[in-house]
User: Fold these one by one.
Assistant:
Number 1:
Amino acid sequence: LKSGKLEILTGGWVMTDEANSHYFGIISQLIEGHEWLSNHIGEDYKPRNHWSIDPFGLSPTVSYFMKKSNFSNGVLQRVHYSVKKHLAGTKQLEFIWRQLWTERQVSSVCLKDFSYISVVADGVRLGISGAALLYDQYRKKAQLFKTNVILVPLGDDFRYDTPFEWESQFTNYMKLFKYMNAQLPWNVNVRLQRFLPALLF
């Protein structure tokens, strides 16, 4: 945390089920999580960004609570495909979520992730065709955004639970990035890097 390589997002006790939760439960779990962070990690690491990639439904109420909790940005994932299709077609995947009763609040919609692909201990086995496929997906995704930065989440709720997986993912992606960046015909200016959600906003 001190070096900036890890960021605490939202900081609630759980990721709220936005479709069915009562506002008391939403606020209570947020308070519980923030008090735990304050007591065990310290005041210097208060979350500044909201992360909501796997709730069952999205609620403008939760966005409102996040804004009132001093979050200025958010990342959303589970959005109806027709909404994603519209946003992608109009290059609005990075958008300002305006609610009828609030001011502007920034959120992002992320597309497909590859978290269900099993971990490969040695990235060399992925081969050139795998790197080309991944690069092509990144290239296609980049065409849906206004900016030259895209967010590609890696993993899900049940990932990165062992040191082996952390090391394997890091090592494999560094090999893939090195290979992609060496392919001049693909795009001389392609730049792939790891970063924290805070750097998006």
Number 2:
Amino acid sequence: MAGSLPTQNVQKYPTKPEMGRGADEPIVQFAFSLRKSQRRQLAHLAEDRDMTMRAFILDALKERGLDVTEEDMLDLRKCR
């Protein structure tokens, strides 16, 4: 009924924003070992490109053929 009144601004909004493929797919952790100097170098390389280390690694894997979306590149850390 409210939708028929001219003073009402009734729109349907999605309850969950539609994201790209894999939006419903759970995120799992994957760990691997690096030498301390390699980890430092990775941190510097990522910082120079203004990326997180996770995004830097995903970008490198994307270049090698891994299916990576823009949503995958988002920073998952909580804002403080």
